[in-house]
What we know:
By secondary structure, the protein is mainly β.
Amino acid sequence: MNKRGNWLEGQEVYTVLPPTISEVGVEGRERFSSVMIKEFRVHAKVEGYPKNVYIGYRFNESDRFTIAAMSNDGKTYDKKAGDDIYGVVIQPMEGKDKVQYFIMAENAKTVGYSPSNYNFTQYTASLSEINQ
């Protein structure tokens, strides 16, 4: 039975893979628009049968990360509902214009992160950058 078990463990169909997170970004102001963006509209493409997708964000390096759910409902700057693009809107704290964040996605068996070394490196965005 051990031979059979080893063979089954080597089969790709039985390999547990985390969700794949790609195309992470923050929506910027439309070209030639006079309307300034006052919040962070973060989106990411998540594939691999995600059950839940979250964002961890903070406004200072010394702060703890706040965790919020991301949606694929077509209402949170994530394009269309059910298109594997998840989005969330983060309201900045008073006087804060920069955010650090990472994405976490879980499926039935495991969890994936972007960036994969999120403990040391996070994505960053500032309101001045997205309003250019």
